[in-house]
Amino acid sequence: MDINLFKxxxxxxxxxxxxxxxxxxxxxxxxxxxxxxxxxPRLLRGGLSSFFAFFVLLLFHLLLILLSWSxxxxxxxxPGSVPENWRPARDEENFEGDxxxxxxxxxxxxxxxPSSNGxxxxxxSGFCIRCQNxxxxxxxxxxxxxxxxxxxxxxxxxxxxxxxACNYKFFLLFLLYxxxxxxxxxxxxxxxxxxxxxxxxxxxxSPGKLxxxxxxxxxxxxxxxxxxxxxxxxxxxxxxxxxxxxxC
Length: 248
What we know:
By secondary structure, the chain is mainly α. The chain has helices at residues 5-8, 12-39, 47-76, 168-202, 207-239, 244-247; strands at residues 126-128, 133-135, 140-142, 147-149, 154-156, 161-163. The chain is elongated.
């Protein structure tokens, strides 16, 4: 019995739903540490401390709204589907002399790319043997979503969706807003993180509060550093008009 290993990749979608829950859990921990434990109580102190706390909380909620909006736009937005029975409007290399369509019988996952001296360096149209449909230039077949995606960058398990032509902008905004949010959380939790060791030693605060602040600081610091790398990478891809798949 023949087993299509590519169809087994669709099981990775289940992992993506767990990632969504993980994202919500990280947001909840960060919210509890920053708003309820650290900066919320400072609003009642009065004076300059209350004003600074109000500014921190306002910026925190603004970035949280922006990253939540961009995140769910990436999750819910179609990355770009190929119309059924799509054919190129004009592709002289793909047509025979009598005008009949002659698709490129490529490997099914990547578009056919011309040589350095052909078609002015532009990618040619192809044919996906899995979808049994035409494949526009820079289109790739996703083995997880089981379909072709226009200008596919990658399949992201964090959003249970492909990142393609129609939702790549929201993906970049999500990276940017999340980087700003996690960086701000790291900075505003830093004093409490430094006090963590003295308070834990003196038993001057509850263990649960100290644990939440410690976990929130470490998580936000780790995500801020990793997101910085992703922003630099995707920024270079945008300026070079390249996708992650094409780069690899």
